[in-house]
Amino acid sequence: MNAQTILRLALIGTVIAVFTHTRADPDLWGHVRFGHDIAVQHRIPDVDPYSFTSDRAWINHEWLAECVMAIAYRAAGPAGLIALKVLLLAAMAVLIAHGLRTEGVGDRARDLLIGVVVIGTIAQANHVRPQLFSLVMFAALLWLLVTIAGGRTRAAWLVPPLMILWTNVHGGWILGVGVLVLWIAGGLVAGVRRTETIALLAAGAVAIPATLINPYGWRLWTFLHETVGFGRADITDWQPVYRMGAFFVVLWVSLVALAGAAVRRALAAGDVDVRRTTVVLTLAILAFRVNRLLAFLALALVMLMGPALASLLASRRTARGAAASGRLASATAFAVAAALLLGSAYAAAVNVRCVRVEPDGAPEADVTIFALREHASGRMVTWFDWGEYAIWHLGRLRDDASAGQAPAVKVSMDGRRETVYSDARVQEHLRFYFDPPVRRAFLDRWQPDYIWLPRRLPVVPALIGDGWVTLAAGDQSILLGRPGAATRGPSDARSALRCFPGP
Question: Rounded distance, CA 293 to CA 241, Å?
Fold first, then answer.
């Protein structure tokens, strides 16, 4: 085994260690809970049993991904979720690597390009969420497109089943449809081979209507038409890159710079591919507006422009001349590889034990424990990011046999947003949180038994002034009971490492 192979194995180990580091997304509690319910009930509910303010039919467009997540959790707990995440990310990387190999990209350049993918997807790779399934589906779509472009037109018939699967795991399928349409249109403009054009047109004609094969049929189309867009100012994932901090800005600029270098290389060689350039340019514009699309930009850049980037890298290496090799270089490579392998193995072993709950990702454990000990029941006004956490701990159904019964606690709001709440309901909550004068009308309408919110919200002091009683409190959260309830002492909550599901 030569030094280059050892180094490649060490780098793979490092990537796995990075992928095993996992934080709990605010929706993780809900994803696992709802997937479990579907598996137990053997049906997909269209009426939400967990909220008392839900005002629309439940369109769970991630139902299949949630079932897989629930199965992984039931099989091995948090380690099962982390293993699922690593498997999905590994599948994504393998698809990209295989696509690059079929296009003639050498080992060293391929390793570097996979490194670009790892960096470009790191924000999504830090969580276990249905969007990971979209990354795999998108990588598979890109792999099919370059495979078809390479002359294997029969692969086009894998596009429809891919889109059916994608439609049932995550709403990102709409991006896949957009890329497929762009690719077909670009091929018509560029005048690609007739057999390829016919195969893609036929596959597209089947794949797009095939997205109707889901539990909701055409209602899923109308749901996405109504809800997908740029107007989500209160959701971090949907913010433009310039509002997300230096890392996201640098990442976008770097990916665009690499795309520009690839286009210049193609222009110099007189071999500009209209389809590849159009797809990457479109994703660059979209990713600038919506930062969650950076991962898709990275995948498209590497798969579609990887050969041009590899050619550019090879030309620069040739200009510098080959590096000298010898026993000292080999010994150094082995030493570095051994250190990386040992370090990554230790990190992965530590990471796989815990899906980390960040201090600001959920209410304090002591506050949750208090609510559990008091057997809280009734209606609870909740903060957007904490609703599914409350559903897991306080609103979960008593046992599998009672799946049709109402939970002990129902929440007012959670991260499912437009899948169960109208925009009017979301805006009503935002006004309650941030505009204290409207609180009385809100409370009169919904008659909650508890209110569980971040202490920093403007409405909290007003509620305490109205007589709502502090049942338990920590540094960041406060649980209030109806006026007249017995006063409880505040919790002495402390920040510590917490693992999903908590408390």
Answer: 10
